[in-house]
Amino acid sequence: xxxxxxxxxxxxxxxxxxxxxFVVIRAAGDAFSPGSLAFLRLLVGTAALGLLAVxxxxxxxxxxxxxxxxxxGVLWFAAYTxxxxxxxxxxxxxxxxxxxxxxxxxxxxxxxxxxxxxxPRPLVLGLVVAFAGVVVIAVGGDDGGVADSxxxxxxxxxxxxxxxxxxxxxxxLRTVDAVTATWVACAAGLVATVPFAPQAVGExxxxxxxxxxxxxxxxxxPTAVAFTTWAYALARTDAGRMAATTLxxxxxxxxxxxxxxGEVPTVWGLLGGVLALAGVAISRRRPRVARLETELQPxx
Length: 300
Known about the structure:
Blueprint: H1 6-28, H2 34-55, H3 63-87, H4 93-100, H5 103-114, H6 121-139, H7 146-172, H8 178-192, H9 197-206, H10 209-234, H11 239-245, H12 249-261, H13 267-283, H14 288-296
Helix pairs in contact: 1-4, 1-10, 1-12, 2-3, 2-8, 2-9, 2-10, 3-7, 3-8, 4-7, 4-12, 5-7, 5-11, 6-13, 8-10
């Protein structure tokens, strides 16, 4: 495969595995509590990534770079995973995926404030449209009950944690290679979820074989493999563009959830999801003036 195609291929692997994670989490959630499932997933992922790191003798980052890696490990690998597992006790896999994928807009907002990227008109319009989508999903919950409302809130929290993780990871990858960054971050997430270890040991003894296999798959596929391919691709492109590639995750998750679990989001959920993703797409559009300036720049 030509080198220029490696980053897109890595992004594709990530998208497919992350989409499947929403379905597997939903299926295994009956046997494992949110914290237990997160601990088991990170235990498997850390072991697999550790073997890879030892094989290639990757040095552990130091100083500020280590701080960034540990930070996104706790936020993304630990907190995000636990909250997502909790959210999927109240939401179907497709709706959870739709809510999580408002993260690209949050990344753009932080970039506008912290990195001085500003707030161009497409970003503001995208924010309004995406927020409307979240409102539609919330209002159109199955019964409008407390559980559904909690699920919506948890879904939005996962998007915030995801966004924070992407931003910290992007900074870390300036000086740390993808394998090391993913391994150390996963280990940090594992340490943060150690309080759930006793509960995980108790639950795994009574869990059906399918749920245990699901937990192992989450550790190997969506964690060890997908986060490594994501880091590889992220190091070779910008954070906003990479976050936008995850827009197809909800569609794949909805299809897999329908085929394997028989779950189909409500009409309101689908409408809200379409609005949320449309808002993200709008926010990623570049102003016409900026496009013209880019086109008029001389080739170097």
